Amino acid sequence: GAGVSQSPRYKVTKRGQDVALRCDPISGHVSLYWYRQALGQGPEFLTYFNYEAQQDKSGLPNDRFSAERPEGSISTLTIQRTEQRDSAMYRCASGPLGGANYGYTFGSGTRLTVV
Amino acid sequence: QKEVEQNSGPLSVPEGAIASLNCTYSDRGSQSFFWYRQYSGKSPELIMSIYSNGDKEDGRFTAQLNKASQYVSLLIRDSQPSDSATYLCAVTGNQFYFGTGTSLTVIP
Q: pLDDT band at A1, cuts 50/70/90?
């Protein structure tokens, strides 16, 4: 696609429910990053992929958070048993191989609210 | 110590002045450095990248890198009200790290 697409744009869920956030990167982009951004803060690293391989998941807060990218394109970030503290903007960014040298392009984000 | 440190501001400058934004990083092995601009409620947008010591100019923007001091800066000349935003410093190390951002307001 022309840009990084994230869906849904907004998600309101009840505490304890599972949610799945989707990221469709720019066509051909090999690297895909997930970030969480609280209001007034910079993006906080969660995890990233090169192709379908998860390279680093050290930023995932706990084992309720997981991510996958089975075919090396679309990625899903799943949060199980959501808690109010999970409420935030979740952002996805993608880049070409070697994107660490050129920067990444962000999607519009998914605003998650846990009530 | 955070990987990337920025003064959160807010920084206010009058229209037409030079705005100076600063960033320090902890990983000496970092190779690539970026400045992103984020308008309120929007996604971060890449505006500058720099890889070598010295200055890199792009229009009204100049990025400066000093690897020995682990310091990156962004200068915005002839600041405009449309430059009012949060500026995020990003550094590549083991991952792609961001600072917390500096809020800039350009006063007409």
A: low
